[in-house]
Amino acid sequence: MDREKITLHGVPETMLFTLYARALDSRSPAPVLGDTEAAAVVPRIDYDFRRAGLGPLTATGIALRARQLDDWTREFLLTHREATVLHLACGLDARVHRVTHLSTVRWVEVDLPEVLAIRERLLTRPTGDYRTLAASVTDDAWLAEVPADRPTVAVFEGLTPYLPPEEGKRLVRRLVDRFPSGQLLFDVYNPVALKAARLVPALRRTGATFRWGVGDPRELEALAPGLRCLDAVRSVELPRIERLAWPARLSARAISLMPVVRDMERLLRFAFRSADRPA
Ligand SMILES: C[S@@+](CC[C@H](N)C(=O)[O-])C[C@H]1O[C@@H](n2cnc3c(N)ncnc32)[C@H](O)[C@@H]1O
């Protein structure tokens, strides 16, 4: 098999880490995500995945995060048969294949041009109402390309820490302004995690830095009228955490008793102009 050589630096390189994590999870005896597309893509890439410094534990943690965001996306689509899914910073994530959806759903993926070019070559192209937009989420033009005719769920995983704080907040405001109603599903790191990230060798190797930290997710409600925080789930308390091996479960349990540290990474679900209340 001809493998594709990938040479990326900075934030785009980090998409290879999360891809590898999903592939490792998929190959484990009891996957939490079961992302067979990731498992198929990794062997086709010529890249030293040891740079990710991932062990089974971190890989499962990343898979648990993706699983939660998948589940929230599915929940939204259960109650909105005609909807738009806006998958920002999609990287090489096959969420579009994992989250089975009706043909009445429009699916739009956004990432930087160099990332989408690789995605195009490696991932199976979905059928149906699907398109990609090559742009920085901080640019102004791309959002006008997404029709504002339907409830929209915007899901962005592994993006917010890399944005300058003002750009991250502006993105939230622009999404809420653009669509009639919907949800925003994303992960955030707190200021302590921002500092700790400077010590993570894999991140240092890429040259990417964490920039935006969110201490209190509810403060984001003030960014736009009608924006409500429905859920803020700590990564150490995610559903299915019991799938981790027992030493990791114990450590997650210990961390969940430690103020501030337990809030280092959280998954957030916000609703805007919508009567939705999750069951
Ligand atoms: C950690 S990876 C996550 C990728 C994917 N969401 C996943 O979970 O595998 C970070 C992603 O954010 C994208 N990204 C970072 N800054 C961006 C920006 N300003 N506009 C669009 N994408 C961006 C990168 O290109 C990369 O694909």
Question: Mind explaining what this structure looks like?
Answer:
This protein has 279 residues and is α/β, with parallel strands linked by helices. The protein has a single domain, classed as Vaccinia Virus protein VP39 (Rossmann fold), CATH 3.40.50.150. Helix content is 34%, strand content 18%. It is built from nine helices and nine strands. The strands form two sheets. The chain has a seven-stranded mixed sheet, sandwiched between helices. Helix 1 packs across helix 3. It is globular, with a radius of gyration of 18 Å. The mean pLDDT is 95. S-adenosylmethionine binds next to helix 1.
Percent strand equals: 15-25%
Do you know the CATH topology? Rossmann fold
Distance between the termini: 47 Å
Largest sheet report:
7 strands, mixed
Number of H- or I-type helical stretches: 9
Helix content: 25-40%
Assembly classification = single chain
Number of domains: 1
In the CATH hierarchy, what is the architecture at level 2? 3-Layer(aba) Sandwich
Order of SSEs: EHHEHEHEHEEHEHHEHE
**Shape assignment:** globular
Structural class: alpha/beta
CATH top level assignment: Alpha Beta
Give me the Rg, rounded.
18 Å
CATH superfamily membership, which one?
Vaccinia Virus protein VP39
Give the neighbour order of strands across the main sheet.
Answer: 5-4-3-6-7-9-8
Question: What is the count of β-strands?
Answer: 9
Summarize this, please?
The chain has 279 residues and is α/β, with parallel strands linked by helices. Helix content is 34%, strand content 18%.
